UniProtKB/TrEMBL annotation:
It comes from Cherax quadricarinatus. The keyword Disulfide bond applies. Residues 1-31, 42-140, 146-202 form the Ig-like domain. This is Ig-like domain-containing protein. It comes from the Eukaryota. Keywords: Disulfide bond. InterPro entries: CD80_C2-set, Ig-like_dom, Ig-like_dom_sf, Ig-like_fold.
Amino acid sequence: AKNALNIQRVQSADQGTYRCRVDFRVNPTLTFISNLSVVVPPSRLVVYTELGVDLRNIVGPFLEGESITINCRAFGGLPPPRVTWWEGTVLLDLTSEEETSEYVTNTFLVTSLTRRDLHRPLTCKASNTNLTEPLTSTVTINMNFPPLWVRILGDRAPLSAGRPYDLHCQAVGGRPPAVISWRLQNTVLSSQTDKTSHDGNV
């Protein structure tokens, strides 16, 4: 004889020890014990700044030298999920600072931002089982930069009175592109035309 216990739509409350007892007319009773463990994945992931502002895709813009603190909080999950920070396949932070019965929070600090941090992707992952894909959320760092340099192009040869000349001023490395203005003594000149490179760098 066969008998099966079928649990549909397993819930966390179904976790526990199950006993199957087989009674015989002559032989001693047999008891089989099965332990059912139920894993509940985290329900949602929230990434936010130290001021509590929720982040979607972009964080910033920031200036060079600034530091940023980004929090990642995973809600739900049984057992509590592991919340980690990644850059691509590189693990940056695996230590959670806060864990309650409702959520787990991992705070990631980036100090002294440089130009290399522009467009840097930071991914938070939350998982408590290998049976499902982890919850993920990625934010990208946006930054503003002052120009690296500004210069007047040309050989600086003497100019002749009565003849038109084009003077070129070039600013490189500003983000957003630098606004250039010309002055003659204290007078602002307005007969200029601007041209910006496709990437906005020049």
